[in-house]
Write a structure and sequence with these properties.
The structure is a homotrimer of 303-residue chains. The first copy, chain A, is α/β, with parallel strands linked by helices. The first copy, chain A, is built from 12 helices and 9 strands.
Chain lengths: 303, 303, 303
């Protein structure tokens, strides 16, 4: 079983995955040592064609906490046979011969990870392929909502920041359609608004959404605020970053007590550090959930 | 005991190594868990002064499958004390103080690995030193022949591709002289023909050989075809890569059913992918044998 | 408990650390396997924002010898979220969520490691922060003196080489003030003499010192010679490296039989290799002591 796209999961499979994540997380926090025996001696290869330290370390620690050995390459693009013109299919078929129990691949080009998966029986996990998929990010985002609200339906979810270019907000919007009665609010400047393909996807799946440029109105009664990083170089000419929305203490005051604030990280200054101690700020827990979701995914494919 | 050159092995030692590889491979494929206890807790350092992801991962997984911890550096040349003018002897003497159980070294300069080995009691394995030796490659090549034919003598072995520059074909030719009655056929264009030093070496050891530019005649009754990568930049002016030999389905039809086709990989297009599913295509198994031979070598030096 | 600076240790704590190092070293050299169970399954992250292969491998092997898993990044500066403008506080808070048992950080900027430590409960070890601290180096230097002389007081310690720029000699001078009756001799050319801030520090702590440009007189009755690397580019204009002091066999003849010669390594030619076999040459043992001191530090913070 390969993990190539968040789309590959049915609602039932997502619920099973999140239930398994709950169970692994709780076991880890109460008795780590038992987990260490779970996949003792199994071998994970992390093959990164472009750097993503956070994602790599998250997978590596997830594996190590379950007793696996981790063999890593940080910059396969420069270092590997790829520089000599080897296809990723050949690379995958060679690595398969080393009998790893799973391979995590990060690639700079869309579709390459799926190509690797197509030729090998070793479970492949896509850790991001260019502008393509990054399923474990979407899954950890969705899991964090489940983890906080103990449900994944009937939620008001505000998406903010750079909705036009940001892969994570787009993926989360799609994943929200797996569950019933969610309502999405796009809260950003017009120049960074969510693209039509996602809106059409939501239309087709019966998920309601609105564009609400006013932060106060957007945040009212929200269950989830999902904020994303703005890159200066992606702002339209004439738009200064200070003209976009930032989450500060005042913005937090618009939110209900039960809301959560998420961010895929790294953040720069679109969420001020003054917010970090607010119990609704869940972006660091979200990173931790990433590790637990990856443990659950590894556990699933290693069975 | 250091592993510095394929030349250091007698015929008897090679046979012992291959028998041990057979045994480890069979044990791994039937009961991995036993092997995991074999060298549990021992520490392997892989010190790579130039990148070679394939070789590094092969050693690292070999070690991990026997329960070892692997400590790696991917680019010692740029990162290490070498940049500050430290000799490899000093580096080896420092690493020795960290009590690793073995050190695998890849270096961009010939002779450096042997210099490291000369000053330390920690077993050193040469994973390639510039234009010098790459003993584990030669050994895995020879093992693959043994593994497929259950013998290493009396074989007709065709060497093709870039015989002039390719280290692997040169090394295999030398290693074939350890056994009786092998006959070598050089099948390439005149500009990439095997150099005289190897021919003289074969003469001195009583191994017969011929140059046969015709692929069909070369492949007739062959037991082994060992093909190597052509690099455009090494072709003589005026020679196009399409004028050299490629192995396609037609070429395969010249070969006996019992022949095997090997390649050290990565390949570009000197063997077409249409050949991959042919049972005689052994280049991926060959990569896997590399891991098993490395397990056997580690097992030998750790005793 | 974080390890941020050698200054954080009292005399009593240093003695406890060195006693623990003695005990771990002796246990390792007699029965490695017991140590392997000590921190089995715990996870160490080594986060290096600049390369320092020696230090990284020393920590990694220290951890591996006690059964820990090591997750590494060799060049976090280039690879990590830092490139996207993430603060080290955010990075530390994210890594904390992966539940490592300790994090070793090397950073190119002074103070960054302490900033990371300020926001996390995971034990942080400073493996060097720019021109700031490198506590494990100072501790291993001091431990090597203790290990050889079975005392740390009443010693005549010669510091030589580049005392002006060298961080290690400066730190050792400071650490020597923790113990009674040590006398320091600065033996170098005027242009590379120890800076006034350290002399004032020694004055304030009642440690005596002198500048003695003559090597023979400096070495007379010395207990310890601590030599450091000269970098050509740091020599003043007009001063050639051969006009500085080198330790050769003749220089060794000035030293008592009981003296020891130390160097933080890498050395270039300020200590000739002809000295390496002299039993007083302790620079390689010193590197090994580095690993044992790091084992003791890890053991201390993991309790």
């Amino acid at each position: 079983m390969h993990i190539l796209s968040a789309d590959q999961f049915t609602k039932k499979q997502l619920e099973e995955l999140f239930t398994l994540t709950d169970s692994i997380k709780s076991q880890f926090l109460t008795d780590k040592n038992k987990l260490l025996k779970k996949h003792e001696g199994k071998v994970l290869i992390t093959l990164f064609y472009e750097p993503s330290t956070r994602t790599r370390l998250s997978f590596a620690t997830a594996a190590a906490h379950m007793g696996m050995s981790v063999i890593s390459t940080e910059n396969a693009r420069e270092f590997s046979s790829a520089a000599k013109g080897e296809t990723i299919e050949d690379t995958a078929r060679v690595l398969e011969q080393y009998y790893p129990d799973a391979i995590v691949i990060r690639h700079h080009e869309t579709g390459e990870v799926a190509r690797a998966a197509a030729v090998t029986k070793v479970p492949i996990i896509n850790a991001g392929d260019g502008k393509g998929e990054h399923p474990t990010q979407s899954l950890l985002d969705m899991y964090t909502i489940w983890d906080s609200h103990k449900k994944h339906s009937g939620l008001k979810v505000v998406l903010g920041g750079d909705l036009l270019h940001g892969r994570t907000a787009r993926s989360l919007a799609k994943l929200l359609t797996c569950f019933d009665g969610n309502h999405i609010v796009f809260n950003t400047i017009p120049e960074l608004q969510m693209a039509d393909d996602i809106k059409e996807y939501l239309d087709g799946r019966g998920v309601t959404y609105e564009e609400e440029p006013d932060m106060k109105r957007a945040f009212q009664n929200a269950d989830v605020v999902y904020w994303t990083r703005l890159q200066k170089e992606r702002l339209p000419a004439g738009v200064h970053i200070d003209q976009t929305y930032k989450i500060d203490k005042k913005a937090m005051s618009y939110l209900p007590e039960t809301a959560i604030v998420m961010h895929p990280l790294p953040r720069v200054d679109e969420i001020l550090t003054e917010v970090d101690d607010d119990p609704r700020a869940k972006y660091f827990d979200q990173a931790g959930n990433g590790m637990f979701v990856r443990m659950a995914l590894l556990d699933t494919i290693l069975k």
